[in-house]
Amino acid sequence: MEIDQPLELDVEAYAAGYTSHARTDRLLFISDKAGQTQLQLDALRLAAAELKKTENATRYLEVVERLNKRAPGCHPFDREWVDRVCQRSAQRHAQLESELAGYRTNLIKESIRMGYTDIGDQCYNTGDLANAFKYYSRSRDYCTTSKHIVNMCLSVIKVSIEQGNYVHVNNYVQKAEQTPDVQKDPVISGKLKCAAGLAALDNRKYKLAARKFTEANAEMGGQYSDVLSGQDVALYGGLCALASFDRSELKRCVIDNIQFREYLELYPAVREVVNDFYSSKYASCLMRLDRLAPLLQLDLHVHDHQAALLTAIRNKALIQYTVPFTSVDLRVMAAAFNTDVAGLEAELAGLIQVDQVAARIDSAAKVLIARHANQRRATFHWALQTAEDYLRDTRALLLRANLMQHDFMQRAPPGPSGRGGRQQMSPFGDHMMLRGAA
Amino acid sequence: MTLQQLVNSIQHLSGTEADLSTLLAKLKAQESSLRQSQAALINCLRALDPVQHSLGYLYLLDATGSEGLPVHASEEFIGLAVGFLQTCSTVQIRMAPDKFVSVSRKLKEHLLVLHQPRRAVLPLRTALYKLAPSSDYVTPIHAEFLQVCTLAKCYNSAVPILQADISDVDPAKTAMTPRDLMLYCYYGGLIHIGRKSYAQALDLLLQGLTAPTMVVNAITLAAYKKYALVSLIHQGNLPPLPKYMPTTLQRSLKTECQAYQEFAAGYGVKSNDELQAFVTAKQAQFAEDGNGGLVRLALEAKTKRSIQRLTQTYLTLSLADIAQAANLRDAGQAELYVLRMIDAGDVHAQIDASQGMVRFLEDPEEYNSAAVVARLATTIDKSIHLAQKLQAVNNMVSCDKAYLNKLHVKERHSRYEDTSDMSDPMAEGRLSLA
């Protein structure tokens, strides 16, 4: 088994998987997380070079500033380019605005839609996400064909994902999926599935996310690279599936899923993890996951969920391991999980206490023994308990109703003292001497 | 009317019901003059027979009762009252329940001055049986009786009284007041706590807490404090109080019982040491409320509960591990705890002392004995009985004129406007029944 060093991240190859904003966003995210390493420097340098190809001058300024702080002089600041870009985009914006105004007076629906979309694109390119969202969603009223609607939705989804506004993502995915013909286009439906998957992931609904990612069509491939790459689909889908699917679901939706398998082929590390898990090689599966962990830490979407997902997968593995047996030798199990007996015992105890594992630990012999719920006993217990609750509640109810009937209400005595809280302590009277009697 | 004349009319008018009503009117008229001639009354009492002339005897006895209180006790009064409570005629004393309650209360006060509450237990028990028309009723003597039982630590003699399901307060028949009901619930709760039947204690205290009230009084606050601690001991948490709690009380609990609410909030989450530190900081307050013992029990219950959780997880576990998991000092202390819990039936386990291991067993109750069948049968009987009672009350309410009027008015209102007027507690209580 070739278990070697933690996986190294090749920034250039990684960045090549993405286009447009996704590339710079991810590079900058890596530079945020990487600390003072060569990796950070590489990421920043690539991001600067990438940004110079776009019209996003503001972002470029930020990156160059950071780059110069980190390693002065390695990237010359191109003042001339910035000025030129700013001027050009301002001109273009003004031109588009005036064109749009023209279309609006002439009331040509299709032209208005295109005008809004063009301004949206322009804002998006210059990095003004809020305005891009505004213009894209305005074009909605002027959409005439389902193709227009889907395009509008995809644009809005893209912007919303970048803004991290997943409520909008969900809304527009639903809208797009309701338009006719969308299911027939594998690329578009794949994109929508991935977007929905990202939204579910952000919402910590891992099962839903897993389902969405594994449903993504193979034909989409890398065509959604301005949001995520094919590797990402494999990574997110694989992890979420391991964390939330049971064995039969895993087999049906992941292992036997030809479409998803193509994504897994793009990311061999994840493929191996999934296969190991399914063939119950938990030690190597968990070890591979540990090696993946630093990479997950650098991922834009999954970094927040890394700990939760890995714990869930580990617990799932522990649970699955115990299910088929009536008794398990903890020493063997510890070896299978590459851990020590004491640690395993504590982990299992935790799982038993939250009712995930139906078993009890024989701590003297270091054996885990399955426990079968006694339905009959539970039913008797439950019936008696319910009867007692009923009797008690009904009695209390009858007495309360009787109190109401006799208007049995303690009222403040009339007088200047009014309805204060503390002044009404006197009713205890001689009974106060009882304090401490119990 | 002189005393002698009064005694004469008592002697003559203690026969038929009509005579007794006349007598009652006369006695009521003479009440204030009776109180002024206390000394002579004792002699008059000798001329009367407590069984035949119970009503008159009652009034005279009550008038003599307050003598000397609250400093001196009168053995003479105690003797007369004890004899009277044991022998008096049930029919006659039910004509003047307030006086009867007053005599019982005075007897208790005299004995409390002497610090001999135990002597009051039996007479008061007889008295409350005489006053209550049936075991459904609760009387003010219930509260007095439970108080002396608590003071005399005769918890067991109170059990039959507490086991009767009370469902009726009728001030006309028993001279009951809201305060008496709260005291009944409070002292009943104390007795249940003393007998360690925490579930019943919780029910009774909650009954007291939810009794309708416009003002906050010391009884309810004290009851709430006990309630909070007992729920921690019994269930490990403090459940939110029901919605039908009086709102005035809800508001003041936060300010008046802050230490208890903080203790309850921290009980489930804080570690033993943190809780102990909290308790030490608030020690004075808990002690002043007389709840130091309950707080200590609550802390112990936390340890017990963590040991009980272990039984769900482990089949065998060494004492040292138990001590560590339950945050105890050492294996010896853990052994002591487990031993005590096995005795109390809280856990089912065996201790292997030679190896220092504990083997946890499953609950041996298989629900296949005759006792279980009998228990099921009685529970079903009780449920049916109670359901019938509920149905009867329901029928009574649906025929109630005031209720129907109210309903009619509301229906007419709601035809024009949607806001329903639920301010009347009468209607609300009845609606919840229906």
TrEMBL record, chain A:
This is PCI domain-containing protein. Residues 409-438 are annotated as: Disordered. It is found in: Cytoplasm; Nucleus. It comes from the Eukaryota. Keywords: Cytoplasm, Nucleus, Signalosome. Gene3D superfamilies: 1.25.40.570. Belongs to the CSN1 family. It holds the Pfam family RPN7. It comes from [Myrmecia] bisecta.
TrEMBL record, chain B:
Residues 197-365 form the PCI domain. One of its GO terms (biological process) is ubiquitin-dependent protein catabolic process. It is found in: Cytoplasm; Nucleus. Residues 414-434 are annotated as: Disordered. InterPro entries: COP9_N, CSN3, PCI_dom, WH_DNA-bd_sf. GO terms for cellular component: COP9 signalosome; cytoplasm. It comes from the Eukaryota. Keywords: Cytoplasm, Nucleus, Signalosome. SMART domains: PINT. Its main location: cytoplasm. PANTHER family: 26S PROTEASOME NON-ATPASE REGULATORY SUBUNIT 3/COP9 SIGNALOSOME COMPLEX SUBUNIT 3, COP9 SIGNALOSOME COMPLEX SUBUNIT 3. Belongs to the CSN3 family. This is COP9 signalosome complex subunit 3. It comes from [Myrmecia] bisecta.
